[in-house]
């Protein structure tokens, strides 16, 4: 159950998005979170993704408890570059060399490891040339602190400029049945360069699973900041869930499994490695996600799913420049 991203980075075919283990979607139980991480490794989901900004470092510290006892099993990814708190609407970024060197040491300490397998620039700093940021990240590879480099929410041009400085293993951006803007430029460029793609929120921040009632989200739930979850959009977007569910019923799968399988087929279509990183707090959801690897969709079903995004209401971010499509 392995895949190969760019720069010969081998990962599991599905990864695990650690942000869900931080209370951005409501309260999280640390004991349950650790049990879920252990279960993920037990069944072969070994690509674990976190970031220094999740929980102000608490997410890295939580994941370190599993890393400490099972480091050899884990392909460990973390990120830097967001200096504010996105959950509170703060979108400050930094990418200068001094900050790169500071952040990696802080993450290594919180993760209690001596090397990070994949180190991402979480968001571009508009005041620092990407060449400077990636150049500093390349120093980390030379120093043995990082094995591979990644970029999150970059445009095709930014990816090309970064690749000219150092091989990029992966681009991480939102990509799902209801978020397809990356297919216009970023995905084709990644395929051309041999860079892998790591879709975050492949289940539409849970909405595409059909298990989320947006009208009952807690007051601290991060999704309240996303236009697609606003009162004026959510009823319209229920149609997306209904379409996914109709295909799922036809193939004997769940909406989550169909959503992940759709991304697998998209990777084949564009000719690049695609490793989604759905997040969850519950072990049973990991079993469900892994079963998506055996879901088969025919041409008509794929066409039906391809039509969903055109009718989705609301942007995927309240700040267009925060995502790559707003800067293309």
Shape: globular
Uncertain spans: none
Q: What's the architecture, going by CATH? A: Alpha-Beta Barrel
What distance separates the N and C termini? 34 Å
CATH level-four homologous superfamily name: NADP-dependent oxidoreductase domain
Radius of gyration: 18 Å
Task: Please tell me about this protein's structure.
With 328 residues, the protein is α/β, with parallel strands linked by helices. It has a single domain, classed as NADP-dependent oxidoreductase domain (TIM Barrel). It has a 7-stranded parallel beta sheet. Strand 7, helix 5 and strand 8 form a beta-alpha-beta unit. Helix 1 packs across helix 2 and helix 7 crosses helix 8. The radius of gyration is 18 Å and the shape is globular. It starts with a strand and ends in a 22-residue tail after the last helix. The mean pLDDT is 92.
Task: Tell me briefly what this model is.
The chain is of the alpha/beta class and 328 residues long. The chain has helices at residues 30-42, 58-70, 97-111, 130-142, 156-163, 186-193, 231-251, 255-270, 283-290, 299-306; strands at residues 2-4, 10-12, 15-17, 47-49, 75-80, 116-121, 146-152, 170-174, 196-200.
């Amino acid at each position: 159950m392995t895949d190969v991203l760019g720069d010969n980075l081998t990962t599991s075919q599905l990864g695990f998005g650690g942000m869900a283990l931080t209370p951005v979607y409501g309260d999280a139980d640390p004991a349950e979170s650790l049990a879920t991480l252990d279960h993920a490794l037990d069944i072969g989901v070994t690509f674990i993704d976190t970031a220094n900004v999740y929980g102000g470092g608490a997410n890295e510290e939580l994941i370190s408890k599993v890393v400490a006892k099972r480091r050899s099993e884990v392909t460990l990814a973390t990120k830097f570059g967001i200096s504010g708190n996105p959950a509170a609407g703060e979108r400050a970024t930094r990418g200068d060399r001094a900050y790169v060197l500071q952040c990696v040491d802080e993450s290594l300490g919180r993760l209690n490891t001596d090397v990070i397998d994949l180190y991402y620039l979480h968001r571009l700093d508009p005041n620092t040339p990407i060449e400077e940021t990636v150049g500093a990240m390349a120093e980390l590879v030379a120093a043995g602190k990082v094995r591979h480099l990644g970029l999150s929410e970059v445009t095709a041009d930014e990816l090309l400029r970064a690749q000219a400085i150092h091989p990029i293993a992966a681009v991480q951006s939102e990509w799902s049945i209801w978020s397809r803007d990356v297919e216009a430029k970023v995905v084709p460029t990644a395929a051309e360069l041999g860079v892998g793609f790591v879709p975050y929120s492949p289940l539409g921040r849970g909405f595409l699973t059909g298990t989320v009632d947006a009208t009952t989200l807690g007051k601290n739930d991060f999704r309240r900041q996303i236009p697609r979850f606003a009162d004026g959009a959510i009823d319209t977007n229920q149609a997306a869930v209904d379409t996914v569910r109709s295909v799922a019923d036809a193939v004997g799968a769940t909406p989550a499994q169909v959503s992940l399988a759709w991304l697998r087929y998209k990777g084949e279509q564009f000719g690049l490695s695609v490793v989604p990183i759905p997040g969850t707090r519950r072990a049973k959801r990991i079993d469900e996600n892994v079963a998506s690897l055996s879901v088969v969709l025919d041409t008509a079903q794929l066409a039906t799913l391809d039509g969903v995004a055109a009718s989705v209401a609301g942007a995927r971010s309240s700040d267009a420049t925060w995502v790559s499509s707003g800067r293309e």
